[in-house]
Amino acid sequence: MLQAIQETVSYILDKTNHFKPDTGIVLGTGLGALVEDIEILAELSYADIPNFAVSTLEFHSGKLIFGVLSGKKVVAMQGRLHYYEGYSMQEITFPIRVMKALGIRHLLVSNAAGSLNPEFKKGDLMVISDHINLQPESPLRGKNDPDMGPRFPDMSEPYQRNLIEKALNIASENNICCHKGVYIAVPGPNLETKAEYNYLRIIGGDAVGMSTVPEVIVATHMGIPVFAISVLTDEGFPELLQRVSLEEILETARIAEPKMTKILSLLIPTL
Ligand code: HPA
Fold first, then answer.
1. In contact, 90 and 109? CB cutoff 8 Å
2. Among 218, 92, 216, which residue's Cα sits nearest to residue 148?
């Protein structure tokens, strides 16, 4: 893998005039608008980047954006890859390995998720304090390269406590309703049954989604501190469960997105 990373990094450095980002950002489903606040210096389609998989989702644009946001040099993935698209966990997380090789020192991740906590409503935000991984595989399965990280990475605090506190302070100063809770990653692509939502709540989840955890595991493996935030796009409360469509999830993400963008753009200068 090291060789593939080196090949990709040298392509990117060549195309971006040797831009060295400090912060990596992964933008989730329906949450690409943060890019509008970036002073863009270069933009590469995944399709043109050697060794990058291309998102199969028509609503994910699939671009790597390089630029300056709130005074910091950032690289942002507009559109991420998901396990349910058929990629391996290594393919999904390859861009995170590349960002690390480009020099990032923090990773910020966003996603759309279903609420499991009856106090967390559709359209609210939730800072992720911890996770439960119910996806069938770890991106670290297979031979470990000790130059990248340890065989058995510690997962006692993948989500940095000081960043969580800062984000919650930013939210309250700006009158944004933002909770804190546990994210459960499921394989997808189907949403959950009532019995599954019930189970996910019982085992300790506040929100459920189909992404983020592979990227967080790989970032933690490489020693990169992570901040992650969910936009709650639907409510998985078993007794009240409504049918939900992708259009509604995207519409809720679109409405709640400016709140998330505000928190991230105020958090970034403090990194
Ligand atoms: N379940 C799983 N993934 C999701 C959901 C959900 O309810 N909402 C958005 N992503």
1. no
2. 218
55 Cα to the center of ligand 1, angstroms: 18
Residues flanking ligand 1, CB < 6 Å: 112-114, 186, 191-192, 208-210, 233-234, 236, 249
Residue pair 179/120 in contact by the 8 Å Cβ criterion: yes
pLDDT in tens, 180-196: 999 999 999 999 999 99
The answer to whether 190 and 209 have CB atoms below 8 angstroms apart is no
Residue found by looking up tokens 């390995």 in the block: 97
Tens digit of pLDDT for each residue in 23-73? 999 998 777 788 888 999 999 999 899 999 887 665 556 899 999 998 999
CATH of 2-270, one of 3.40.50.1580, 3.30.70.360, 3.30.40.10, 3.40.50.620: 3.40.50.1580
Tell whether pTM > 0.70.
yes
